[in-house]
């Protein structure tokens, strides 16, 4: 229907191979070692039961070697940061509570000790961290400051007389909050606080602080609260920490980026306080990459459940036929599931590329500031886009499974509740998208400096073009594809990859140019209202960030297709990429029409091309979810086994009635619209 | 900024008065009688605890007289169907589990006995139903048939020898499922089953069937299952019912629309089986109206929590100032909350109008078929639109409250989980929107007949215009407003109400015309594929239904403003209506551009007019949520009391530091974008 050769049947394993990517061995290990019912979610647990089970499972997981990949080989790890992301994405397919618990222990807590601590601290703590003998917390967020972490109000003041820091929570808003491992298991915490020494604030630093003694009682001066029941993630013991002048020995400062001598003299290799802080944060980028990828795992599981259910579930008879229609055959059901599936594929390729870039940046001999800044921007954008996508996708899958989707036994409620907070933690998505926009506006140079008053708009404008046009993946191929499209593109097929790429690029470029122009104008006309200079274009700036991430994702998809060896799999992925590209353009149709990038006639064609793609991909829906390679025990949705059995039994019963000459209930048709009230 | 006089401060009570509407007395009674902490949600309960509490509270509620409004005065009710909807909307502000439990008992179960039963049955059962001494179920949906209830597979076969029916579940897919009151409390159930008598199927009928004895044990032949843990609504005991040849006495058929004589002779005043069934269902329309309105209650509570939090919560400093910025001052935060708030207002007026229409149709002396069909279509569309809106709104409010929004103590997780299934029960929203479309396509005539093969497309086309142009509210006023707009509207202000109304109307008309044309064409060209005739335009047809509901809602809003006595309140509501109208057009900008209804220049103006409206409405956000009149104890979100106290303490602490000459932490600015990793 799309003018190309019809798609051939595809072996899901050929697609899985491409999705598994550079860390295929890590993913396969996880399937083989952990792909059992023991690691599957348990439905309907109380918070107490869930916490106990997840704590025990986390300890067990520690022994598998699946969790320490990112740590140095000297401590039992594999020096494999990318592998650790792949491993946690696999855990997320099984259970998001387990994934978060592992992420807190080995990603945030262990990762902070590794990235911010010194050799002595590594020797002293990393082995017990890896083995989970020392469960720990990452205590950064405060009740009053989450997004703006530079403004944390907890203080840690050095006293040369005692050679200790005084860690203190000055008021309720400075309480550490939402801290995983705090309410139940944590023995130590990496606490972020404003370092004060010799009467001078030095900005936020991290301190290693015991919070419970060997009996599990809070240490003197430490008050531990429980965040209690949450929307989801019941197995994670989030809590609150307050410190009442708690003494912290000098050598418990994680001092890689800032040192305090015995006499209180402060030293650091990075002079600028803001820059120092963001350098410290930058070492923790792996957490954000893990969260984005794990959210996508939730989307994959939800789609597999909804697609498989929709392939057997029937409702309303086809006109003039005995059979009831399988719900995946309805156009509007395809309109829900298939674009979400296509976007999940696109994001999987983008996540793979991000993980790979992260790995290479982290193992590089020479630090590359520009690469680090770009990595952080990419991690922020993909975290936001993947977590929003996951929330929306799990929701649509819940609705696509009807009442069954609301029962805990069918997995979707738990997935929905667990993944919800992913849009908030590791950075509120809206704030992260602003971070992406800021990176674009400053051309990645000085990405974390202040843009106070936006006086630099002129500078910004000069930087823009080279930045945007920098390709992110498969540079040569993409340039060739784009170059091959004629400038007057009315006659170009919308399935032309170069046309799609250029549409995405064009949108990003135009939005960015517009944002810069408006900021420059505001900087001139709103000098007396500096807040409004930025705030008045905030929506425009965020749209720019979205367009940028969309383009990065499309380029990663194109590069992923290029790497696919199996021809049938490659053709299928090509069509999925078409659907991602064209539904993204369709969602922004207003912009493309408004800016003369689509004529009304082309916009109309777009709708029918998308619908043709849905029809073409319909027979491959099951293949596309099978290719995620999720171990069957992890799916753990009753309807996956029960609905096919029920449908078979009903069909046999209907057939028996027909043989006996008693018709089954006269079929209503799919165009009839009887609907039951609720119960 | 919008060229109109600036808005004056408004007393929320002046707005509340308009929102409270025709059943203000019912709403005020509920506030006074039930507006206590006892009726507020309890956070973090187990399912067992929630069920016990809600059952006890339901019994208590029975004694208040708030739940029987719809029943005849002879049985202790008030013959006030509209009032009963207002009452249940109030319960939904307090606790959605309680609302659903009450809805099952007095809406569905009691409502079915009332609407489908005879005088003797009323006398025998209604008193005990009203007092909750006889808790009951509405057993319609089966595991295998939810949307297509005409195809239920449970059978009820009459045997003249014993003068009993034989109620039977032939296979697992015919099991009654998701049935409220079934798992724990129900003593009887209204069971919908295929009636067979004298060897002939008579279609679905309702039977009153005891399911538990006085001790609470299942009756012989009745198997009761528990749906167990769900996403939300933990206080509602949903369960499953199967029947193994259960004998049902002849007089337990609810026989208002179909009677079986002792010898098995069937009689009915409605000959056509389908028509009879949908007439029966039509008497139950109150359930759908209640569900839509209750979902909107959830949206109101969520918005009040998010708006009040956003009015005190600060994050990032304003450039060049000491103060941190209140999050409601960010344009993008306004872009999230205010359009949702405007739409909530719009839907409130539409719901009020729907309830009023329903009430008048139900009390009419002479049944009016056309009015009944239109009511059912309106109820279906508003149920779908309100429940989707509620799910999306609670979600955005959750995200707008950040990590705090994820904690059970802050109410939003429970609201989110509870309201989720509202898009599914009382009819899957997508199926309901098809019902609306079908109503439009057939000009409300023969609305429930089959459109098999769509051979009637010609007939359809003839019906279209008069149907669409039928005004739904404030007919005269709206016609005058529309007529006053010049046909060439490039120069008309987008704040002109007539322009807005015409844009909505125009879109609906054009979509409907297009759908009819495409269906006619398909009927001719796809004769051999009757399923595809309809399925290929399903997306177009659903867009038509959406446009129709949007227009109905806007007209109701306009009529509501017209009824507002207080001039300041009227002006404010006018601006809120502008925002609803223009953000709806903005969301469909692609369509308006594609069809030449907006020029690119106008589309650009649209964005800035919307942003101006956000700035203009910003100071009134609090007024707009206060006007919902939700009793403070029902809000029950810890952050509403704790965050203002925390902010005050932090401000006092910062001020003390300044007085002492020690600056608080140097303020980062709102354009800086530090972001904490997750914990």
Automatic annotation (TrEMBL), chains A, B:
Limits of the Acyl-CoA oxidase C-terminal domain: 501-639
Acyl-CoA dehydrogenase/oxidase N-terminal domain ranges (all copies): 55-131
SUPFAM superfamilies named in the record: Acyl-CoA dehydrogenase C-terminal domain-like, Acyl-CoA dehydrogenase NM domain-like
Alphabetized GO MF terms: acyl-CoA oxidase activity; FAD binding; fatty acid binding
Compartments in which it is found: Peroxisome
Compositionally biased region (Low complexity): 665-679
UniProt-recorded name of the protein: acyl-CoA oxidase
Organism: Modestobacter muralis
């Amino acid at each position: 229907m799309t003018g190309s050769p019809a798609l051939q049947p595809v072996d899901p394993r050929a697609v899985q191979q491409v999705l598994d990517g550079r860390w295929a061995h890590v993913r396969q290990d996880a399937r083989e070692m952990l792909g059992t019912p023991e690691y599957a979610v348990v439905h309907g647990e109380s918070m107490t039961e869930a916490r106990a089970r997840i704590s025990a499972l986390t300890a067990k997981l520690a022994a598998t070697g699946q969790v320490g990949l990112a740590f140095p080989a000297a401590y039992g790890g594999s020096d494999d940061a990318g592998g650790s992301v792949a491993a946690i994405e696999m855990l997320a397919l099984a259970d998001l509570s387990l994934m978060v618990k592992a992420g807190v222990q080995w990603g945030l807590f262990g990762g902070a000790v590794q990235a911010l601590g010194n050799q002595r601290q590594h020797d002293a703590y990393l082995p017990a961290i890896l083995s989970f003998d020392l469960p720990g917390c990452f205590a950064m967020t405060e009740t009053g400051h989450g997004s703006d972490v530079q403004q944390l109000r907890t203080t840690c003041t050095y006293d040369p007389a005692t050679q200790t820091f005084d860690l203190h929570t000055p008021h309720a808003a400075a309480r550490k909050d939402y801290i995983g491992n705090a309410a139940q298991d944590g023995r130590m915490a990496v606490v972020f606080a404003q370092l004060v020494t010799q009467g001078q604030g030095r900005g936020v630093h991290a301190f290693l602080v015991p919070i419970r003694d060997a009996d599990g009682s809070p240490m003197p001066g430490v008050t531990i609260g429980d965040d209690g029941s949450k929307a989801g993630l019941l197995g994670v013991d989030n809590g609150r920490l307050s410190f009442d002048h708690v003494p912290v020995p000098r050598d418990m400062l994680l001092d890689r980026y800032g040192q305090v001598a015995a006499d209180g003299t402060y030293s650091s290799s990075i002079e600028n306080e803001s820059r120092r802080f963001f350098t410290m944060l930058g070492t923790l980028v792996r957490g954000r990459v893990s969260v984005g990828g794990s959210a996508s795992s939730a989307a994959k599981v939800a789609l597999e459940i909804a697609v498989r259910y929709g392939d057997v579930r029937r409702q309303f008879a086809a006109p003039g036929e005995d059979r009831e229609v399988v719900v995946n055959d309805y156009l509007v059901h395809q309109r829900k599931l298939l674009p979400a599936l296509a976007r999940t594929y696109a994001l999987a390729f983008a996540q793979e590329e991000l993980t790979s870039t992260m790995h290479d940046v982290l193992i590089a001999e020479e630090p590359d500031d520009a690469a680090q800044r770009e990595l952080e921007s990419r991690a922020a954008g993909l975290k936001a886009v993947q977590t929003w996508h996951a929330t929306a996708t799990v929701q649509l899958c819940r609705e696509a499974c009807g009442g069954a989707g609301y029962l805990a036994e069918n997995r979707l409620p738990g997935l929905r509740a667990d993944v919800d907070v992913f849009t908030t933690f590791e950075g509120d998505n809206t704030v992260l998208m602003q971070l992406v926009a800021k990176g674009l506006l400053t051309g990645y140079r000085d990405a974390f400096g202040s843009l106070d008053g936006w006086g630099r708009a002129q500078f910004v404008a000069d930087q823009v073009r080279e930045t945007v046009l920098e390709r992110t993946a498969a540079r040569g191929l993409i340039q060739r594809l784009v170059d091959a499209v004629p400038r007057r593109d009315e006659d170009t097929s919308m399935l032309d990859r170069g046309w799609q790429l250029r549409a995405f690029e064009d949108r990003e470029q135009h939005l960015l140019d517009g944002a810069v122009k408006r900021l420059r104008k505001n900087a001139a006309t709103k000098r007396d209202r500096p807040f409004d200079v930025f705030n008045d274009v905030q929506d425009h700036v965020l749209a720019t960030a979205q367009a940028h991430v969309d383009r990065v994702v499309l380029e990663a998809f194109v590069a992923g297709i290029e790497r696919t060896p199996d021809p049938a799999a490659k053709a299928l992925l090509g069509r999925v990429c078409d659907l991602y590209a064209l539904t993204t353009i369709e969602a922004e149709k207003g912009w493309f029409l408004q800016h003369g990038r689509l004529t009304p006639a082309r916009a109309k064609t777009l709708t029918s091309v998308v619908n043709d793609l849905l029809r073409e991909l319909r027979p491959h829906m099951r293949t596309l979810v099978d290719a995620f390679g999720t171990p069957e025990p992890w799916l753990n949705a009753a309807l996956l086994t029960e609905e096919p059995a029920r449908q078979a039994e009903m069909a046999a019963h209907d057939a028996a009635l027909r043989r006996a000459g008693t018709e089954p209930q006269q079929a209503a048709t799919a165009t009839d619209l009887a609907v039951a009230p609720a119960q």
